[in-house]
Design brief:
Blueprint: H1 4-14, H2 17-43, H3 45-48, H4 58-68, H5 85-90
């Protein structure tokens, strides 16, 4: 069974350059938000004493990050992204609705 990192590296090898640019920007944004979140948690006394506090779920984090994006950031997002995910990630033929 492949690890997440191995699957990600395989997908990167197969993705077109334009998709990689989008993925890189998204990854950098998520890393920045995650670091900010860790810093604010470390500065909050309730988190500073509880080292076993669970990390927020992926979906909760994604929802919070998408809510923080300005409306104009969504203008360039393809309306058919969920249907044509393989197209945008791997260059597969587009699925027409």
């Amino acid at each position: 069974m492949m690890t997440v990192k191995e699957r990600l590296l395989l997908a990167i090898d197969q993705a077109p350059e334009t998709v990689l640019e989008i993925v890189l920007m998204f990854l950098m944004f998520v890393q920045q938000q995650f670091q900010s979140s860790l810093q604010s948690q470390a500065e909050t006394p309730e988190f500073a004493t509880d080292e076993a506090a669970p990390l927020p779920s992926f979906f909760a984090t994604a929802q919070r990050l998408s809510a923080d994006l300005p409306e104009e950031a969504w203008k360039d997002w393809p309306a058919d992204f969920s249907i044509n995910l393989d197209h945008y990630l791997y260059g597969s033929p587009k699925v027409e609705e």
